[in-house]
Write a structure and sequence with these properties.
globular; Gyrase A, domain 2; 22 strands; 3 domains; OB fold (Dihydrolipoamide Acetyltransferase, E2P); 8-stranded mixed beta sheet; single chain
């Protein structure tokens, strides 16, 4: 029978009590973590978001009715306890902050009973994620997830404070906007009042924040909800949060400078980690050549080496064929892995095939100086020696090579480098290595659409010295774009925006838009730009990914209170669900029945 808390007022959270409170009478409330009845002696651990405190009922010191009630408690009952804080009579528990003290109750109320939960509420739960997500309200009681939510809250509070102090205004932008088919797929919201018309949920506040610069806001910040209806990878969410900003009368260095100050403050206050400023910068081209990735993890070496010149005259057709097709041959040196079993090398070969590579060529340098290689028979001894030397190969090393178009070689070796680092346990979650990647290509060729597409978005400013190539050699044009990368994750990205009509028109032309198409999609922005637009630039962080790395978690689901799973559904609420006939009628919508495929 549940009791009321009437007449009681909580004085402390469980984890806030310490030796300083010894002798005081306190009132705590929380959940029963566990209950141990030793016959006339009952130990109850009470938990709330701050931690755990032990409540001890003992014959002779505690009222018999309280002992009886304490003995009946089960895991996850909600209780209120009034009692005196005393030093522990038994052994001190140094695993918890309140391990030196206990509460001797003078009153105990059961505020709410609980069924046996479907899994234990404990740190580092071994329970399958789909069960935990179905009962997410129980999962969130676990101390590790509580810590993650606290950290995220702290990051958001500090973010608002920092940017406010730097003269940014927090401005909200609409959720119900115009659907624009650039970028990922929009989530659509049907309009009841305008039958057959739809709002698009924002993939980011990009156009609005640029309009705010036209409006003279000067510095804008928003912790913004964003939506993308795309095929989800393991670590993507259909809805996510950005720390979104835009600044007027600035260039690249201004945006980088204020964000370096922000990261320094954030990591110092939340983690007591000192970020060294200025943060290292690397051009996109250098990042691709050295790491095969535009979000390089700098916590370990194993850099890519271009050996195209060394192998151009060898007899191995895989290498020479790639070079004849305008590609390259590059390799990485897995130090000390020369004795890796063939089976494991085959697994790595299968791994790179997911990135478009046709295979992996290898040279295993044995400790005794002999060479095992998948292609030695096509090389002279001199050619093989030159290749090993170019790769800084020493006895005991394993050299792995990819030969193909540059993009395939970069993608496959870039991913392989990280995969090997994981296998060899070279990744330290306590180390935070930041790097700015700058001078991205403005455009990238899409095989699918058979045209150039914007690497960031169509409003990204080309570097002044490259504007001359926008019509003759679009692939050569670099953008005033920059990403901030942490431990191989892109945590934020942005660019200087185009604010001159003529450059914007050249950009639309390079993307294959007619003037009419550009106006039908972005007319309101292009019209606004006719009325005096300041030079402006911006950046947005993925808040969830940033907090995930700060909290040393492996999945962004662990820092989101109610995440969706891979198919964009919620196991707890079972969303999305079909709408009723009445709702569909109001929206002038009809749902097409899915045709069932009958197997012959």
């Amino acid at each position: 029978m549940a009791e009321s808390m009437q007449g009681l007022k909580r004085t402390h959270r469980c984890g806030e009590l310490s030796v300083a409170n010894v002798g005081e009478t306190v009132t705590i409330m929380g959940w029963v973590q566990k209950n141990r009845n030793k016959g006339g002696l009952v130990f109850t651990d009470v938990r709330d978001r701050s931690g755990i405190i032990q409540v001890v009922c003992e014959e002779g010191t505690t009222d018999a009715a309280i002992i009886e009630k304490a003995a009946s408690l089960r895991a996850e009952y909600v209780v209120a306890v009034v009692g005196k804080v005393e030093r522990r009579s038994g052994a001190v528990n140094d695993k918890i902050a309140t391990g030196e003290i206990e509460v001797i109750p003078s009153e105990l109320r059961v505020l709410s009973e609980s069924q046996t939960p479907p899994f234990p509420i404990e740190e580092n739960s071994k329970t399958k994620e789909d069960i935990r997500l179905k009962y997410r309200y129980l999962d969130l009681r676990r101390p590790d997830l509580q810590r993650n939510l606290r950290m995220k809250s702290q990051v958001m509070t500090l973010t608002r404070q920092f940017f406010s102090d730097e003269g940014f205004l927090e401005v909200e932008t609409p959720m119900l906007g115009k659907t624009t088919p650039e970028g990922a797929r929009d989530y659509l919201v049907p309009s009841r009042i305008h039958p057959g018309s739809f709002y698009g949920l924002p993939q980011s506040p990009q156009l609005y924040k640029q309009l705010l610069m036209c409006s003279g806001v000067d510095r804008y910040i928003q912790i913004a909800r964003c939506f993308r209806d795309e095929d989800l990878r393991a670590d993507r969410q259909p809805e996510f949060t950005q720390i979104d900003m835009e600044l007027s009368f600035v260039d690249v260095d201004d945006v980088i400078e204020v964000n370096e100050k922000y990261l320094k403050k954030l990591f110092k206050e939340v983690l007591d980690v000192d970020v060294q400023l200025p943060i290292q910068r690397m051009t996109w081209q250098e990042a691709m050549n050295r790491y095969g990735s535009d979000k390089p993890d700098l916590r370990f070496g194993m850099e890519l080496k271009d050996v195209s010149d060394v192998v151009k005259d060898c007899g191995f057709a895989v290498f020479t064929g790639a070079l004849e097709n305008g590609g390259s041959v590059r390799g990485i040196n897995a130090k000390g892995q020369g004795s890796m079993p063939r089976k494991k090398i085959d697994k790595l070969t299968a791994f790179v095939k997911d990135y478009g590579a046709k295979g992996l060529a290898y040279v295993a340098l044995q400790e005794d100086g002999t060479v095992k290689s998948s292609f030695a028979k096509f090389m002279t001894d001199e050619q093989m020696d030159a290749l090993v030397k170019a790769m800084d190969g020493e006895p005991g090393d394993l050299l792995l090579f990819a030969a193909d178009k540059n993009k395939v070689v970069w993608d496959s070796l870039g991913a392989l480098r990280v995969e090997l680092a994981k296998q060899l346990e070279l990744l330290d979650k306590n180390e935070y290595r930041f790097v700015w990647i700058t001078e991205f290509p403005l455009l990238e060729w899409s095989e699918e659409q058979n045209r150039f597409v914007a690497m960031h978005h169509p409003f990204t400013m080309p570097m002044e010295e490259d504007i001359q190539y926008i019509e003759s050699d679009p692939g050569r044009v670099r953008a005033k774009a920059y990403d901030i990368v942490l431990n191989g994750n892109e945590i934020g990205g942005g660019s200087v925006r185009i604010f001159q009509d003529d450059i914007q028109e050249m950009m639309f032309k390079a993307l294959g838009f007619t003037k009419e198409q550009a106006y039908s999609q972005f007319g309101f922005l292009l019209d606004a730009f006719k009325y005096g637009v300041p030079p402006h630039a911006g950046l947005a962080y993925g808040l969830d990914r940033l907090v995930m790395l700060m909290a040393k978690q492996d999945s962004i689901r662990d820092v989101i209170a109610f995440p969706k799973i891979k198919d964009a559904s919620c196991l707890m609420t079972e969303a999305p669900t079909p709408a009723s006939e009445k709702q569909l009628e109001e929206l002038s919508l009809a749902v097409k029945a899915q045709e069932e495929t009958v197997e012959e």
